[in-house]
Fold this protein.
Amino acid sequence: MTSTAFFIAGCSSQAPTVTQKPVSATKEANTTKVIKEHVPQRSRKKIKLKKVEDDNFSEAYMYPEDRTQKEKAVKVAAANTTYPAVAAMGREECIGMIGQEKFDKYTQMFGNEASSIKRCAMLKAMQ
């Protein structure tokens, strides 16, 4: 019994005390911020719904054909990388065709006379 008395006495003396704060009567504590959103007004116009007709399907409208003619691909013969006119054309013939100044210019640009002669052969083939 004494243990029960100690238990009850120990619990009752250690109970925390609750104190209430006084309520402040300032304006800031009593006011709340209200955010107003603009709501558009309802339209007063009476809308009449249209009847949907799905029997007007047109294959030509939905899947139109190209009215323009497509260009046909032209087959180009495989280009021959060796020019047969190169062997026939010599340095003198090339200089006679384009002139000494251009021949020297092509020689400097391409690095050697053989390339200049190839250039002359290409020009001759284009004419």
In short: The mean pLDDT is 75. Residues 14 and 125 are 116 Å apart (CA to CA). The first helix runs from residue 2 to 13.
